[in-house]
Amino acid sequence: GGGHVSLYVSKVASVAGFDTVIIDDREAFASKERFPEAVETYAGPWEEIFPRLKINGFSYLIIVTRGHKGDLICLRWAVTTPARYIGMIGSKRKVIEIFKALESAGVPRERLARVHAPVGLDIGALTPEEIAVAIVAEMIAVRRNAVPSLPAMAYKPKAQHAP
User: Fold this and answer.
1) Sheet of 85-88, strands arranged across
2) Which of 10, 30, 98, 136 could be stapled to 24 by a disulfide with Cβ–Cβ 3.0 to 4.6 Å?
């Protein structure tokens, strides 16, 4: 997808050394003007664009479309690729719904187990910019074969003291 989160994922990922390719089913959201750092942009129906992408064991796929339907279409395709990393944005509830729909459509559970969803390291990100940092941080961790150290990532707000 080429929405707000993708806008920043592309920028942060480019700075981190990833080549970005943007696809969206809306022409206004997948353009060189919107994503000047992207190596390529594609606009059109998802299913028509997928065969044009050269996915290999060094590819990182981030699914951040504008809705459940786009996420479902993209994830169904992504899990059939040899991509090293597949991430999909969404609440835990949305992820469960999409996984159940794909399982009932015959997608093997082992394929879905490859998916990082909700995508990104849990750093308490809220804004598109912060979410992009969390996503790219997870991509870097995979690229570097880093072992997660969740206790170090745990956010603990400071206790409020009465005056």
Assistant:
1) 60-63, 85-88, 115-116
2) 30
Q: What percent of the chain has pLDDT over 70?
A: 90
Strand partners, 61: 86
DSSP label at residue 24: E
CA atoms within 13 A of residue 150's CA, in its CB half-sphere? 2
pLDDT at 34: 97
Flag whether pLDDT at 157 surpasses 90: no
**Closest Cα to residue 59, out of 88, 15, 18, 23?**
18
Residue 90 · residue 121 · CB < 8 Å? no
Angle among Cα 20, 154, 1 to the nearest 5 degrees reads 25
Average pLDDT over residues 13-33: 97
Q: Under the phi-then-psi rule, with left for phi > 0, alpha for psi from -120 to 50, and beta for the rest, what region is 124?
A: left
Spatial separation of the C-alpha atoms in residues 86 and 30, rounded to whole Å: 20
* pLDDT recorded at residue 6: 97
What DSSP string runs through 145-157? TPPP-HHHH---P
* Residues sharing a CB contact under 8 Å with residue 50, sequence separation 6 or more, in sequence order: 77
